[in-house]
Amino acid sequence: MFYAKGKARLAKTPRVARYGRILAGNSTIDDVLLTYFPHGNSFTGEESLEINCHGNPLIVRQILNQLYLLGIEPAAPGEFSRRAVLNGKLNLHQAEAIREIIEARGERELQAARWMQDGHFRNELLQMRSSLFNLTADVTAELDFVEEDIEFSSNQNKINSLEAVLQYVQKLGERAEGGNLLHSGLQIAIIGAPNTGKSSLLNLLSGKEKAIVSDIPGTTRDYIEESIQIAGVPVTFVDTAGLRHNSEDVLEKTGMERSILKSREARFILVLLDGKKEPQLAIEESPLGSEFLKKLQLENKEHLKVLINKSDTLHADWPVDNSALPGLLQNLQVEYISVKTQANLPVLLQWLTESIDKTLGSESLLLASWQSDLLRQIEKELEAALVLLEANEAPEITATVLRNVLDLMGQITGEISNEDLLGRIFSRFCVGK
Ligand SMILES: Nc1nc2c(ncn2[C@@H]2O[C@H](COP(=O)(O)OP(=O)(O)OP(=O)(O)O)[C@@H](O)[C@H]2O)c(=O)[nH]1
Ligand SMILES: [Mg+2]
Fold it and tell me: What residue owns the CA closest to ligand 1's atom 16?
């Protein structure tokens, strides 16, 4: 079925792309490049052949059909990576990192995935396992000398080294939270009274005419989302329906309710006030000076910024003293911006970048659910071992718990393979990986 120009059959020159034609009977399917990889020198470690054809799915389908006629079977999701792991070409962490590299949504996530791929996380785990191994060895050795009451290291030393491992594992949980955010992204809600310029700000930040802007109060009826990257992280800005009390319009009210719910979910909040208006009025109308304050649950927000918009036509009574502002505002730094002239936009972006960095921390870790699950089990077992050590329990019980932890750690580093775990890991991969 393959015809190489000038040669009747494929020469098995390793890793050299050979140009030729795939035929079905006498008719041509496509002009292709074939590359042969001998045993031990391919991604999976197995003898393999790569076909580069034109991208039309019809052509791909026809070539696949020819291959199926030869008895070749399609790969299951993740089968290539699974075989690579089983043949020792990749470890589990590298396989997982490949999936993360493919699925990364932002530059920071990509960076974190490469860090995993380079084996840094696995090295951390191996180090931790080795210190736990020493501890287990000490406890186990003491078993032989129970009668003599010999200790290889003091109980306090053992407690200290176990606590260090436990703290490391607990910290991993926090780092993984940062990693989750790298993938899922952050929500930033833009809230305020009608006509303060929320939709204008969304459009400016996203660089798109996404939301309708008009000087009619109540233009935005439902929330509108748009995602961009800030500091290498996907963030979603949520433009919301302007909040006002005196609306009789059922649809507008529903839009406001939905917007409030959405704002509650958001980690970051930008509150816009209309700087064109007299300060007291602008504050009273804003959600900060009204009954909406409670509903929005703004007190719990770690990242909240108040923006006095329309600084290009700022009312003469601004700026106001902080003590004139409602309680929540008094401790906040207020920024004057103009969406129209883009005045102070860099200040806003700087604040967003810094707050995002603070939220994520510098050691964000991408953990797959199998890794998180194992870490949770490890944490529990370590806590149990600590209780046993602190109570100076019989060493055989402590040794059993510690050996269990070592086993779990071996699974997470990939040194102990477990069929169920492999199935769970690779079923989440896409076909062809
Ligand atoms: N002068 C000036 N006008 C602005 C500025 N930002 C927005 N506007 C104008 O303010 C009006 C309201 O803007 P929108 O972005 O629609 O306001 P909104 O907060 O989304 O309003 P609702 O959807 O009704 O809640 C429009 O006429 C904008 O052109 C600004 O910085 N300066
Ligand atoms: Mg709007």
Answer: 213
Strands, sheet with 2-4, edge to edge from the N-terminal-most edge strand: 2-4, 17-24, 27-37, 48-52
Ligand 1 pocket, 313 CB below 6 A? yes
Per-residue pLDDT of the chain (433 residues; tens, 9 = 90+): 666 665 545 567 888 888 889 998 889 999 999 999 999 999 999 999 999 999 999 999 999 999 999 999 998 888 998 999 899 998 888 888 988 998 999 999 999 999 999 999 999 999 999 999 888 888 887 777 666 666 667 889 999 999 999 999 999 988 999 999 999 999 999 999 999 999 999 999 999 999 999 999 999 999 999 999 999 999 999 999 999 988 889 999 999 999 999 999 999 999 999 999 999 999 999 998 878 888 999 887 889 999 999 999 999 999 887 777 777 667 777 899 999 999 999 999 999 999 999 998 888 999 988 899 999 999 999 999 999 999 988 888 999 999 999 999 988 888 777 677 677 777 777 766 7
Ligand having the closest approach to the CA of 312: 1
Mapping DSSP to helix (H, G, I), strand (E, B) and coil, where does residue 265 land? Answer: helix
Does 195 contact ligand 1 (Cβ within 6 A)? yes
- 342 Cβ inside 6 Å of ligand 1: no
Count the neighbouring beta carbons within 10 Å of the beta carbon of residue 202.
26
> How far, in Å, CA of 426 to CA of 126, rounded?
22
Closest C-alpha among 86, 85, 97 to residue 122: 97
Atom of ligand 1 nearest to the CA of 200: 15
Domains of the chain: 2-74 (3.30.1360.120), 97-181+368-426 (1.20.120.430), 191-360 (3.40.50.300)
Tell me which ligand sits closest to the C-alpha of residue 270: 1
Question: Atom 12 in ligand 1: which residue has the minimum CA distance?
Answer: 195
pTM over 0.90: no
**Integer Cα distance of 302 and 296 in angstroms:** 13
Using a 6 Å cutoff on CB, does residue 217 contact ligand 1? yes
